[in-house]
Amino acid sequence: MSPVLSLRGTTKRFGDHTALDAVDLDVAEGEVVVVIGPSGSGKSTLVRCVHQLESVDGGGMYLDGELLGYSEHRGALRPLTPRGTAAQRRRVGMVFQQFNLFPHFSALRNVSEAPRRVHGRTAGEAEREATALLDRVGLGDRLHHYPRQLSGGQQQRVAIARALATRPRILLFDEPTSALDPELVEEVLGVLRGLARDGLTMVVVTHEMAFAREVADRVVFMEAGRIVETGPPAQIFGSPRSERLHSFLSRHT
Ligand code: ADP
Ligand code: MG
């Protein structure tokens, strides 16, 4: 089976700093890949490039075999129009550290807005689906609350429901619990565990090593824009091969 997501030589520079240095990565259907690594190693840049929030400077990224940022027409590749880019981006869901909810929309409207506006669902359909998604993240009783009336953990769960609402092929999480008070981390990790059990395809950047060990099918360790080591959690945490991973783990576990 071909991977849902493939990166081939993906390279990103900011000025003369190389944030991603020829990264190769495949994510299979239903796979949970957890990305770890020190601050500044390129983890956010990696997921931001996949979501086309950053342009790339080299290599290719493929979603279900389709080159991101381009369309094929009579055997020739053309850069996507803004509309084409938007449609491609909707096949990728992203959850940020800082929730990024619309402050003036209720939880229900935060989740139903995209399906209603861009997927042509009726208001009724979009609301029914949004209600079911909010229920799935444990917020069935908070539909009409506004973000400021919700805790950080609840806001992040709304953001997860919103990311699911466009039925993406893959979900990207960039440190989804790093902005939360410690007592709220577990309710968000619990939702991620449920999504993993349901077979969603996910890339999760996190510093929660216990979560990585428990939920990841594969762990990717990045440093200085490169994937230094990758493997199942038992190998990464139990018998790290590189000195750099060894020293990272001794600082973070
Ligand atoms: P991580 O998420 O692993 O902490 P990032 O992907 O945010 O790392 O950053 C990787 C490197 O790229 C860092 O050196 C960071 O300073 C740099 N970088 C990230 N975004 C920008 C930007 N918009 N402009 C300039 N440099 C950036
Ligand atoms: Mg980051």
UniProtKB/TrEMBL annotation:
Stretches assigned to the ABC transporter domain: 5-249
Pfam families for the chain: ABC_tran (PF00005)
Gene3D superfamilies recorded: P-loop containing nucleotide triphosphate hydrolases (3.40.50.300)
Keywords: ATP-binding, Nucleotide-binding, Transport
GO molecular function: ABC-type amino acid transporter activity; ATP binding; ATP hydrolysis activity
SUPFAM superfamilies cross-referenced by the UniProt entry: P-loop containing nucleoside triphosphate hydrolases (SSF52540)
Protein origin, superkingdom: Bacteria
Family annotation (InterPro entries): AAA+_ATPase, ABC_ATPase_HisP-typ, ABC_transporter-like_ATP-bd, ABC_transporter-like_CS, MetN_ABC_transporter-like, P-loop_NTPase
Family per record: Belongs to the ABC transporter superfamily.
UniProt protein name: Amino acid ABC transporter ATP-binding protein, PAAT family
